[in-house]
Every structure is written in structure tokens, then in C-alpha cells.
Amino acid sequence: MRRRSLALRVIGVLTLAALIPTLAIGTLAFARTRADLEREVVRGHLALIRALGAGLDATLQDARRTVEIAAATWADTRVDAAPASELDRRATERLLARLDRDVPVIARVTIVDPTGAPVAGGALPPGVDLGARSFGGYVGDAAFSAEGAHVPLVVQARSRTGALVGVFVAEIDLGFVAEALRGARLGAGATVTVVDGRGTVVASTDRRAAVGTSRKGDVAIDRALGAAAEGHTSRADELAVFRNLASYQSLRGVRWAIVLTQPERDAYAVAAATRRLTLLVAVIALALALAVGAFLAARLTRPLAALATRADAIAHGDTAPTPPIRGPGEVGVLGARIEEMAGRIGERAELQAALARGDRLASVGVMAAQVAHEINNPLTTVLGYAALLAEDKPADHADRAGLELIADEATRMKAIVAGLLGYARAETDGDRAAAVAPGEIGRLVAALLAPAVRKAKASLTVTLDDAPAIAFDGHALQQVLVNLVTNALHAAPGGAITVSWGPLPGGRIALDVCDDGPGVPPAERARVFDPFVTTKPAGVGTGLGLAVVRHLVTRAGAAIAVDDAPAGGARFRLTVATAPVVPPAEAP
Amino acid sequence: MQVRIWIAGALALAACDRAPRAEGPPVRFAHTLAPAEAAALDELIAGRAPAVEATLLPFSRAEAVLGATLASADDCPDLLRIDATWLPALAAAGRVSPPPPALAARAWLPAGRELASWDGRLLAVPMSLDGLVLIRPATAAPPTPWPPADLAQLEAAAAAATTAGRHGLGLRVDGYWLVPFLRGHGVDVADGTRGTLGIDGAGAEAALADLAALFARGVIAPPPAPGAEAEHEAAAFARGELAILISGPWAYPALATAGADGLGGLAIDALPGAPRGAQLLAVPSCARAPERAWELAGELTAPATQAAWSRRLGAVPTTEDGLAAAAPLARATYAALAAARPLPRHPLSAALFDDLSPAVAAVVAGDATPAEALDGVRRAWTRALAAGAR
Ligand SMILES: Nc1ncnc2c1ncn2[C@@H]1O[C@H](COP(=O)(O)OP(=O)(O)OP(=O)(O)O)[C@@H](O)[C@H]1O
Ligand SMILES: [Mg+2]
User: Fold this and answer.
1) Cα–Cα dist A497/A488, whole Å
2) Is A311 contained in some domain?
3) pLDDT band at residue A250 using 50, 70 and 90 as cut-offs
4) What's phi and psi for B207, nearest 5 deg?
5) DSSP H or E stretch at residue B71
6) How many whole angstroms separate alpha carbon A308 and alpha carbon A285?
7) Which of A203, A319, B219, B271 shows the greatest Cβ crowding within 10 Å of its Cβ?
8) Which atom of ligand 1 is nearest to the CA of A542?
């Protein structure tokens, strides 16, 4: 369950991480492509109609220039339009025929006099003025007839001195406009229409806009006719880009406008395609992110789940070492660390047990200190009275030996109490460089315990006289031996107890206390040195004897252990370093 | 409760939004604005209600096209922007109607009011004043003597300013530009109102000879190909090839675009004997919505608009408030035009240049002597005056 939710979360995070940039870039691309491409579309359309317009204008201006030169040549030396002779009349006719032939867009040329009366080439076409106030010539508005669309090109013919002699009127066939429009490369759905200054269609690629029909009222056409130069407008899902040809040249401009329209759907097709592509890429990117996310999540969470399982086991106390869980990067490191951690937890548990033991010892120490303090006072009293009573008795008095024994024992008790106090304060008497000859202590212990041995009907053999001096406090050794022998007496009443020694390598010796009792079972051997471990009934044993022994032994830098004695009982072996010098004998 | 207040507020706002807009068919405005002016007009009328349907007429064809359109009354525009010289002919034919009293009472500058009137009646409103002035680069030191008090001083200053690579004077080979030379020699163009031919006598020949000589000496820059005068002149001025240019406010946008300092780079002085003119807003008698047309005319000539156009285009305002708020260039132009005189106010005046301009061109080109050229002009004008008198 936990593993599943983690995997889902990883997928979620990865998807989110993919989604945010995808959305951001997508939105940006959407907005940018729209604005940019639309601007580009308008720019492209404008360039196209500018080129178309310039082409039409150039054709018309070419024709105008040709007619102007012809008119100026014809009028150069004339005073009036009427032919001066038959020769002149024929020359004029040849000129008109040449214009007709050499300028393809010219359909017909007429020459009239300044009043409009025909001179050559036929009558003045209807609706044409003679160019008054037109700066000498102009391109008129389109006229439509069965023969097609025409536009008059009017050029005043002035003589060398500038005097008006006649007027050339050339009819321009507007077929060339339609031809130019047909040649234009238009985008999908786009149409180009050329209208004259009255909004009448001169030519168009749009079948619906018939030549000669008025388009006045069409927003794009109206805008185009009013514009100073060019512009664009958008209405009813159609983009219109226009240019007014009147502005091409301030004085000679042709009153025409050129309009390119295209459904926005077609005009912005590239933009739409780009948008669709962007969307597709975004969706694919998202799907990829999901797939990769799922894969990665699985890869990532599998070792994590194993780690979780392992952590559970550790929590339940299984700190036994196992091979670490492998995984990529930090997960692998985590696996290794968890195993390390398990090892540490095991150690910690052992340490904690040891600490608990230490705690127990510490509390024993506190109690011992209190007991020792309480015992000290009555002991002082006992000592005082024993000394007082002994003082009154003559040297050979029968009570004297008993009294001295009381005083000695009381003194020893004081020493034990002091030792207990020291144990409690964790004092290290070990730094007092102590040394003792085991033989002496052995004799003292034998004397001390003689009554108890007798009472137990046991035998005690102490063979320590030839033992070398050891690095041990005398009182401490006495206490150790008394405790060990007492235990042996308790364990084997009526048995044989031996206290002996033997050399060990490394400047150490072993002091053995053996009995022939039941011995200490191996499982118990570590425990018996713990405080309060006893098999004796309450009031008989406290379980402190061996604890004190171990404390004293450890403090002296020696070691104590129990195993089987050769005779079958218990053997307590004190392993202790020999003292470098034999000190003078100490009074107990 | 609160919701209701919100709804009421929203409704009130929506109502306010709609209230001041007058709906209706668009106002049809036929104009002859130059590209820069047309762009300014586009901005002014964008989103206006009622909408404005503008039609551009090339200046060279406008008078003829308008004449034909108004005569047929077919497809009649509501408002016209015309040259002041065209008004007498339109007024004489009864093709324009007078502005409403409120608009007529506006504080028009006298120069504008005069050119918008015919036969003592205000028949149009002046949109801007123009005429010929002397234009110099503001950064260049003026030639001496400066400013010229008469034609002789101008010719002297232009000659002095002529160096290798620079012409002292720039002007167009056109009858309109001959006017200061004619006036400098004590003659004028034909005056239909008095029946005088104007170019009779030695003065006109001397004026034409004078002009031709200046061209021949290179004091005046050689004429460019016809049709490209404006661009050519602006480029030459920007390159510093012209010390003095004779032109009018219509040339300012092109000069400003070509030059580095914009409109501020132009210094304006009075041209002795200069003709003065104006651009007018007139409503044809055939207009279908004259009130709306005059409303638009009022907006186009509002002092604030005039001040704005003076800053943008150098256009010279025609109202006192507009002039007070106008840009320095427009005020300098107004001051320079103070001494200028309009052409004779007669229906024929505009047509006179049809014959005068080719004559000037013939003389400048060296194809005819001033006497020969003027002979043709005299014949044509006599014919025209006779036809006009009939
Ligand atoms: N020589 C021995 N043989 C067999 N068991 C022994 C021997 N010495 C000690 N033990 C076991 O170890 C236990 C602990 O001994 P320890 O001296 O610490 O306490 P105790 O003798 O029971 O009481 P006390 O505090 O009076 O000494 C004993 O109760 C006994 O069961
Ligand atoms: Mg014991």
C-alpha cells in the first residue's frame, strides 16, 4: 500500500514537472505564433499587392510617357491642331498607328483640338475631359463596354512654347490588369481586386466580383479608397489588405485601389497548423513524461519498498546482518546505511544491557554507601568498648584473646565498610601502588576462618607461602579469599577446600580456590559475579560476595573466572600480576 | 441588495456608453490630403460615430473629379476638402452650401475667412493656411542679405549662397512659383474680376527671363523629372544641396522626414511677393447629411486639432485659439505669410496655371524665349477670359 502511494506520487511529481514547462512553452508558442504569424501574413500580403500595384503603375506610366513624347513631338512646331497639309495628315495617322502597334496596352488613340473637336483617330470617347487643371494629363476612371474595360489616358499636346495645340486620348485596354492579377501567386482562398476611384471593379481574381460592378459599401474597398497609402482590416472572418494607387505619385497617381482578401482560416493556416503541432507535441511530451515517470517510479520505489520491509524487520529487533539492499544512487547508499544502522542497533542493545548492569551496580553502590555509613558508628562503639574492656584485663586474662579478636574483627569490618564506601565512590585505590605477599594473607584467612571450617566439618588447605608478591592490596586480597573460601564452605560442607597458586606466562600467577562441591554450571558462570545473584535462602546469602570480589579484582587490574576444579567442584581462579618488589609484611 | 446596486450601476454604465453616440450612415468625406495628413485623419476618425467614409482624390485630379461628381449629383460626398482657388468656381456654379451660423461664428483668422468666402459670403470653413515661403535649414547661417526685402535681394542672397555642390535656391518649374517673380516685376496673373490679363507688358517677360537666367547660372537647382518633385526636393534639402527652398507647408512632412531634426530643423521666412492660399472644408449642395458634415468640419478645425496637426505636420491653423496653441513652425509660417497676397479671387484663377506652367517649363528648358512662351499664354488666357465672360 505504502509502496503504491509513493509510486503514484513520484509519477504525479514527474507529470507536474513535465506539465508546467509544457504548458508555459505551449502558451508562449500559442501567443507568439498568433501575433507574429498574423503580422507576417499582413506583411506578405502587403508586399504582394505593393508589387502588383507597382507593376500596374509602371505599365500605365510607361504608356503615359510614350504618349507624352508622341504628343510633344506632334505638337512641337504646331500653332493649331488642324493638319497643315496632306503630308502632315498622313504623318499624324502614321504616328497614331505606331502608338497603337508598339504600345500593347493602348487600344486606340484619338487626337482632338483644345475644344474637343476630333483631329485624327476618331471621336473623343464619352465622359473624357481634356485635362484642364490636371497638370497636363491624367489617367481617368474606367469605362466599361461590350468590348471590355478601358481607361482613358489623356495627354495635352503642347507646342515648343508651351501653348496647347491639341489633346491625345489613348484608350488603355484593362485586360493587362486582369492578366497581371492572374499571374500573381495568391495563397489559398485569396483574391485580389482592383477597383477604380468610384469603387468599380477593374479586374479581379474573384469570380463573384464581375468587372464593371460597383463594390462601394464593401468595408475593405471603402477603406482602401480613403487610405493615404496602405493598410489592412479584418471583418467577418476575412482579412483584407489594401493599397491606394492614388498615392503612388502625388500628382500622377492613378485613382485605383488594390485589395487582397483572404479568409482568416486560410490566411492563418500556417499559424493554425503550428498551433496544432504545438498541441500535438505537448500531448506527446506529456504522455512520454507519464510513461517515463511510471518507469522511473517503479525503479525508484522497488528498492525503497525493500528498504521499508527491512526497516520493519529491524524495528522488530532483527538486527542480524544481511547483505545490503542495492539501488540507484542515494537509495543504494541508504540500503548500505540501513545495514550499518542495524549493526549499530545490535551493538546498542548489548551496550544497553551492559549499561543496565552498570546502573544496578551503581544503585548497589549507593545503598552500600548508606549501609556502610550506618554501620560505621556502631562499629566504632564496639571497637571502643572492646579496647576499654581489654585495657582492664591483665595480659593473661581468659577473656583477653576474645576481646582482642572482637577488636580485630571490628577493625576489619571498618576496613570492609571503607572498601564498600570506596566501591560506591568508584574510587580507584589501584593507583596506590599496592603489593602483598599472598602467603601472609593466606595464613590470616586460614586463622580467620578456622572456626567456620571447624563448624562445617570441612578441611582448608592453604599453600601460598612460596608464592611471589603480587600487585594487590592486602585487605582486598583478604576480602577476596574470605569470600571465595566462605562460598566454598557453603557449597561443599564437609568437603576439602584448597587455596593454591601456580605461575602463568607473562609475569602473572594464578591463585586458585577449589572445592569438591557441585561446582558452577557453565551457564551460570558469567552471572554469579553479578550482584544479588544467589542460590541461598534470604538471610543467608545476599549475592553480593562475588560482585565485591570482581569489583576488587577488576580495580586491581587483575581478572577472576570460574570453571571446574580437578576434583570436580568449582575452581575460582584469580589471575594477577606479580609485584616487582616484595614489600615489607603488612599488619592486617 | 448589493447585487441590485451593482446591476443598476452596470446598466447605467452601459447606457452612458451608448448615449453620446449618434448612429447613422457614415459621413462621406472626399479629400486631397497628403499621405501624412491622411494618416493623421485616419487616427482622428478611427472609432468615430457616425463613421467617416473617406475617399482620397489625387490633388491633380480632384478639381475635375469633384466638378463631374457634383454636376451629376450622383454618389455625392458630404464633405469636401478643397484648395481655396477651387471655391470660386464651385460657388459660382452654386455647388456648395454655407456653414451653419454657429460654425461660421467661430474665431477664424481673417486670412482664412477671406479665402473661405466668395461674393461676401462664408461658403466654407478654412482648415489650414498655406502659400509660398522661404525654407532654410535652421542650423545653417542665413545668407546675406537676410531676410530679403524684395525679389532682387532674394536673387542676390541666392546667388551668394550658391557654391560648388550647393544651389542657392530650389523651386518647382510651375506657374505658381512664377508668381513672386511676376510680382517682383510689377505684374500679376490674369485677374478675371477686373478683366486684366496681367502678363501684358515687359514686366512678365523680364520675370520669366530672370527665372530662366537663374536656372541657367545654376543658382536654382535643375528641375527633377516631372512627378517626383516632392521627394527629389526633400532629399536635396536634407543633403544640404539647397540653401533656400521656396515651397509651402504641404512640403513640411516630407522635408521633416528626410532631415535629421524633423520639423524643428526648418527655419521659415517671408518670400517677397508670395501667393497665399488655404485648404477649405466645404459641404456640397448635393450632400445628403450636411449637418453631420459640418459637425465633422467643426471637429477637423477645432483649435485643439489644429494645434495638434501643427505639431505633427506643421499645418498652419485658421482659428485664433488654434494659432495661439500652435507649434513654432506653424506660427513662423503664419507670420511669413502675413505679407503674402492671395491670387485674384476668380473662378478662372486656378485654370490659368494650366497654360502658365508649360510656358515656364518651355522657357526654363530653353525651348522658347520668354516672349514666345508668354505669347501662347496670352492667347490662351484671352480665350479663357472671353469664355468666362460669356
Ligand atoms: N564454590 C562454589 N560452588 C558452587 N556454587 C558456588 C560457589 N561459590 C558461589 N557459588 C554460587 O554463587 C552464588 C553467589 O555467590 P555469592 O558469594 O555472590 O553470594 P552468596 O554466597 O549466595 O551470599 P553472600 O552474599 O553471603 O556471599 C552462590 O549463591 C552459589 O550458588
Ligand atoms: Mg558468598
Assistant:
1) 7
2) no
3) very low
4) -60, -45
5) helix B59-72
6) 33
7) B271
8) 25
Task: Give the chain B residue whose CA is nearest to the CA of A65.
Answer: B226
Q: State the CATH number of the domain containing residue A249.
A: 3.30.450.20
Nearest of A157, A144, A35 to residue A96 by alpha carbon: A157
The C-alpha atoms of residue A321 and residue B111 are separated, in whole angstroms, by 112
Average pLDDT over residues A292-307: 79
Query: Within this chain, do residues B357 and B216 fall inside the same structural domain, yes or no?
Result: yes
Complex ipTM, two decimals?
A: 0.86
Whether the Cβ atoms of residue B275 and residue B131 lie closer than 8 Å to each other:
yes
**Boundary (domain end) residue, out of A379, A397, A427:** A427
**Locus of grid cell 560505621:** A376
Is the minimum distance from the CB of A116 to ligand 1 under 6 angstroms? no
Whose CA is closest to A417, among A374, A464, A469, A471? A374
Average pLDDT, chain A: 83
The C-alpha torsion from A283 through A289 and A291 to A296, rounded to 10°, is 180
Span A173-198, average pLDDT: 88
Out of A134, A198, A247, the one facing B75 most closely (by C-beta) is A198
Whether residues A145 and A186 share a domain: the answer is: yes
- How high is the pLDDT of residue B20? 43
Residue A319: pLDDT band (50, 70, 90) is confident
Residues A92 and A19 in one domain: yes
Whether B86 and B42 share a structural domain: yes
Residues A45 and A107 in one domain: yes
Q: Looking at the predicted structure, is the pLDDT value of residue A22 above 80?
A: no
Q: Write the CB contacts of B269 (distance below 8 Å, at least 6 apart in sequence).
A: B133, B134, B136, B142, B146, B147, B148, B336
Nearest ligand atom owner, CA of A548 = 1
Cell numbers found for residue B248 = 509651402
Nearest to B190 by CA among B346, B16, B390, B5: B346
Quote the domain boundaries for residue A363: 325-427
Q: What is the CATH number of the domain that holds B72?
A: 3.40.190.10
In chain A, how many domains are there? 3
Give the domain-ending residue among A394, A427, A460. A427
pLDDT of residue B315: 96
Residue A156's nearest CA partner among B144, B358, B167 is: B358
Distance in Å, CA A491 to ligand 2 centroid: 9
User: Do A514 and A498 meet the contact criterion of CB atoms below 8 Å apart?
Assistant: yes
- Residue B174 shares a structural domain with residue B160: yes
CA-wise closest residue to A440 among A583, A570, A545: A583
Mean pLDDT of A370-398: 80
Handedness of CA B91, B94, B99, B104 (dihedral sign): positive
Cβ(B162)–Cβ(B179) under 8 Å?
no
For chain B, 390 residues long, the average pLDDT of each consecutive 10-residue run is 46 42 78 86 86 85 87 88 94 94 96 95 97 94 90 95 93 95 93 84 92 95 82 90 95 87 91 97 95 96 96 96 96 96 91 93 94 93 80
CA distance B107 to chain A (A): 30
User: pLDDT band at A37, cuts 50/70/90?
Assistant: confident
Ligand 1 centroid – CA A486 distance (Å): 8
Residue A366 has pLDDT above 70, yes or no: no
What residue numbers bound the domain in which B35 lies?
2-129+277-341
pLDDT given for residue B219 in this prediction: 95
B92 shares its domain with B16: yes
Smallest-distance ligand from the CA of A543: 1
**Predicted confidence (pLDDT) at residue A507 exceeds the cutoff of 60:** yes
Q: Average of pLDDT values for A558-578?
A: 92
CA A267 to CA A240: how far, in whole Å?
10
Write the residue with the smallest CA distance to atom 26 of ligand 1. Answer: A541
Q: What is the pTM of this model?
A: 0.64
Between A414 and A528, residue with greater pLDDT = A528
